[in-house]
Amino acid sequence: MSDLVGDARTWSPDAQEAVRLLAVSALLEGRDRAEVAALFKVSVRAVENWWTRWQTGGRDALLSRPRGRRVGEHQALSEAEQAAVRQAVLDHTPSGLGLSGQLWTQALIGELIFKLYRIRFTEPGVGKYLKRWGLTFQRPDKRAVEQDAEAVRVWHEETWPAIRARAKTERGEVLFADQIGIRSDQVTGRTWGAKGTTPVVRRTGNRFSVNAMSAISTKGRMHFMVFTESFDAKAMCRFLDRLVGHFDRKVHLIVDRHSAHRSKTVRTWLADHKDEIELHFLPSYSPELNPDELVNADLKRSLPHTHRARNQAELAAETRRFFHRRQRQPHIVRGYFGGPHLRYILDE
Fold it and tell me: Taking the model in full, what pTM does it have?
């Protein structure tokens, strides 16, 4: 045991545990306490303490215990206070609680804690609590303040299931549609450049635009129309007419509440084609419920990576190429339905 000579407090927990067990074994063999203390280079008082622990708790009383504070011990905020702050961060924006801004930062959470409990925290201190609470720094989804939560609930629980059931009974086709405008001066995405120098993208000074309408299904089908005139009721009727020409069964088309979709011209056209197609309207201010919105985002990300159009005809051609490419990639079209707010479409 010569390697254990010295201050027992400097030994590893395993070494200390081994000495305690060996010392008690020696006492059980009949050796006196002074002899055991000399043998293991510890004090007689330490040996007496180990013997007392063994008598009251047995072998388990001699085993090493983890050092340091228990989880949650001596924390500035109680468990109830921590739960209250965590829930406030999840349920409210900073401005909604009398602070500034719409997004939570560690500094703002520190301000919230001080406002509630008059306790000051550094940002790293707040970060430790956030990690303990299972919260991470994320890019938020955006929602319009005008969105009606009850209308969204009804869509999820009543309207959409009814549409799906009808389409299944009629052996019809369900598609989600949306329109998009593409401008010549639009630049999205990022590019590489020298550090400290912002890259320059050169484009024509002439401004022009084209519009597109697309519709997609969970089967990976995509239908589209690219046009240069404004999107209005006449353009919508032309798209509907082209769409029904691709099907020999009834189409259930889900769209947002754009004024052109609900116009008298479109309603009249639908009345004349009620056996071929029916329109269903999403709740207002709820683009996250429409997978075709992801088609629009995909288009805007993809166009800057192709040749920059110099006139309206080239921009329309580039837009058509994008849609033709996606028509040959049904796995990507099906992937538009995989977003967290769109899985309801696939869930039976």
Answer: 0.58
